[in-house]
Design a protein that fits this description.
Helices cover 36% and strands 24% of the residues. By secondary structure, it is α+β, with helices and mostly antiparallel strands. The strands form three sheets. Strands 1, 2, 3, 8, 9, 10, 11, 12, 13, 14, 15, 16, 17 and 18 form a 14-stranded antiparallel β-sheet that branches. A two-stranded antiparallel ribbon has the order 4-5. The structure holds 2-acetamido-2-deoxy-beta-D-glucopyranose (5 copies). The site of one 2-acetamido-2-deoxy-beta-D-glucopyranose has 10 residues, from loops.
Length: 534
């Protein structure tokens, strides 16, 4: 009791002279507590948004422009081991999955220009270097694969005039073009001279010309892409951070039937608009996939360096046929019939070659497709699913596996004798996995700090504010009650002014000496008693 009295005496006697002053302080602290409760996260988000915005010279900008990580591309090629029997005896093709052939990539964005509308324009440079240590096999391994330029030409001629097909057959005879080619892995990927493409280059009218006379699945991809990309920097509108504004000057593709399906406003997979929730659908744009690829939340994961993230994967029906996913109707401009279940027809993006994308091993596709060939093991989500692990607060990609299989949808054309026995089939050619495993430790450390500190700081601040505020308030109210108790007693005694100010108290004490001191003594006693009883 003596202590409480002392506290009250101190509170009222020190520089905080009046109890209501303390109540105001307490209320201000509590108010700050409420503000922190409601707005702290928003403030932190504002700071994060400001920090990640792509600005010339900023740290995030430099990481984005020239990522310190080296993505790794692993390629698996389906080697055809029974080409002759397949053509001559109508047996299923027997495939042997070769690889991985591993390439370490170095990415850099070049020719950067900032525009004044919150966007930046650049060209993407990717350098691929073969990594023999992480590969099974060498780039010089010989493989037998379908002759894609030839089969594209014959499949396309299916609806042309018959004499054209016959003419094609004789040209192919002269040029000794066969439905399967034997090339090295390096050639298949990076290009070999193809007689048909060479011919086409000379005879086809300029505007329909193919851009190259070599054929390779990754032809022209080693180096700086010609495509000019404009993305949002996040300045002004963080909700579009990292998304493509225009691709070669266009905000939309022209292949598909609806505006929505033609959009290119997706991320390249490295950065996403921040503050991602589990309910969000995020989008990736890749020129070769020829559409926005939606990704939805799958699960929470812990990535390298202990950074927690959200795993996003495409919805299971992303490549479904129209019966299973009517939204895909826009991707079938010349249908029906449309692409089989689990395949995505990119023919319009690939100079009309009948190229179909799927997930590796026909994951999530019609089981008939895998049954049509031999030698492909059943798909497994773990090995064949596409995913990106994202740090949700900042929208940074932590780990990724972009997995896609390239197939050729061959149509039987009986008039062309070289391919007359090549049946209608979706022929798998190869699949790849483009991935990053983690970010450098400096970056993950920063991320851990940036994501763990704010909640801790918030909790600490809330506790400090609410506890101090509440304590001061209780104390002040307590002293108020005491003082009003005094005041009542004093009023009864007729010296009401006495309790209002301690300073006066002291003065009175010293001036009037003993008698007032006694009055104080007697005055405080009833309150003292009150405290004891309550
Ligand atoms: C690919 O298959 C062919 C037979 O069609 C074979 O001669 C060749 O050795 C195989 N390539 C590899 C790398 O195994
Ligand atoms: C930048 O663009 C110019 C012309 O647009 C081009 O000639 C040059 O090669 C580009 N620079 C790089 C590094 O790609
Ligand atoms: C921003 O400016 C660039 C360059 O002038 C332009 O290509 C782009 O379309 C503009 N984007 C928007 C959203 O205005
Ligand atoms: C890609 O180009 C670089 C040089 O620009 C070269 O060193 C590298 O070998 C090339 N990679 C492939 C797979 O051709
Ligand atoms: C793929 O798309 C092209 C262009 O729309 C079309 O001509 C072709 O028939 C389609 N292929 C299949 C198998 O649907």
């Amino acid at each position: 009791m003596q202590n409480r009295r002392k506290i009250c005496a101190k509170l009222t006697s020190s520089f905080l002279r009046k109890w209501w002053f303390i109540i105001i302080i307490a209320l201000v602290l509590l108010l700050f507590g409420v503000l922190v409760t409601f707005f702290f996260t928003a403030w932190v988000n504002l700071i994060i948004d400001n920090q990640i915005t792509l600005r010339d010279g900023s740290q995030v900008f430099n990481l984005w422009r020239k990522p310190p990580v080296h993505p790794v591309m692993q390629i698996y090629v389906y080697n055809v081991t029974n080409a002759d029997e397949f053509l001559n005896h109508g047996v299923k093709p027997v495939l042997e999955e070769l690889g991985p052939f591993t390439y370490v990539e170095t990415w850099e964005k070049v020719n950067l220009t900032f525009n004044d509308n919150g966007t930046v324009t650049f060209q993407q440079q990717k350098i691929f270097r073969f990594d023999p240590d992480r590969s099974v096999g060498s780039e010089d391994d010989m493989v037998v694969v379908p002759n894609i330029p030839m089969l594209s030409a014959t499949s396309q001629s299916k609806h042309a005039a018959r004499f054209l097909r016959l003419a094609m057959a004789s040209i192919m005879d002269i040029l000794k073009i066969k439905p399967f080619v034997e090339v090295t892995v390096g050639q298949l990927l990076w290009g070999y001279e193809d007689p048909l493409l060479k011919l086409a280059k000379d005879v086809v009218p300029k505007e329909q010309k193919l851009p190259y006379e070599e054929f390779g699945l990754m032809y022209g991809k080693n180096g700086t892409a010609k495509d000019i990309v404009t993305v949002f920097t996040g300045a002004g509108d963080i909700t579009r951070y990292g998304l493509v504004d225009t691709f070669n000057g266009k905000t939309h593709m022209s292949h598909w039937t609806t505006e929505k399906c033609n959009r290119v406003m997706g991320s390249d997979g490295s950065i996403f608009p921040p503050h991602i929730s589990k309910e969000d659908t995020i989008y990736i744009y890749d020129k070769d996939i020829c559409r926005l690829l939606p990704l939805i939340f799958q699960k929470e994961v812990i990535t390298d360096g202990g950074v927690p993230g959200y795993r996003f994967t495409p919805p299971l029906d992303v490549f479904s046929d129209i019966e299973h996913n009517p939204e895909n109707e826009c991707f079938c401009p010349s249908g029906p019939p449309c692409a089989p279940h689990g395949l995505f027809n990119v023919s319009l993006c690939q100079y009309d070659s009948p190229v179909m994308l799927s997930f590796p091993h026909f994951y999530l596709a019609d089981p008939k497709l895998i049954e049509a060939v031999e030698g492909i093991s059943p798909p497994e989500a773990e090995k064949h699913e596409l995913f990106i692990d994202i740090q949700p607060t900042m929208g940074t990609s932590l780990r990724a596996r972009a997995r896609i299989q390239i197939n050729l949808a061959v149509s039987q054309v009986v008039d062309i004798k070289q391919v007359a026995t090549f049946p209608d089939i979706v022929f798998p050619i190869m699949w790849f996995e483009d991935g990053i495993d983690g970010l450098p430790t400096e970056v993950t450390n920063l991320m851990n700090i940036a994501t763990t500190i704010p909640p801790v700081a918030r909790a600490a601040l809330l506790h400090a504010l609410f506890i101090t505020g509440a304590l001061l308030l209780v104390l002040a109210v307590f002293c108020l009650v005491r003082n009003s108790g005094r005041q009542e007693t004093l009023s009864l005694e007729g010296t009401a002014h006495f309790a209002t100010n301690d300073e006066k108290n002291k003065k009175m004490k010293t001036q009037n000496g003993h008698s007032n001191g006694k009055a104080l003594e007697t005055r405080t006693n009833p309150a003292f008693m009150d405290d004891n009883t309550s």
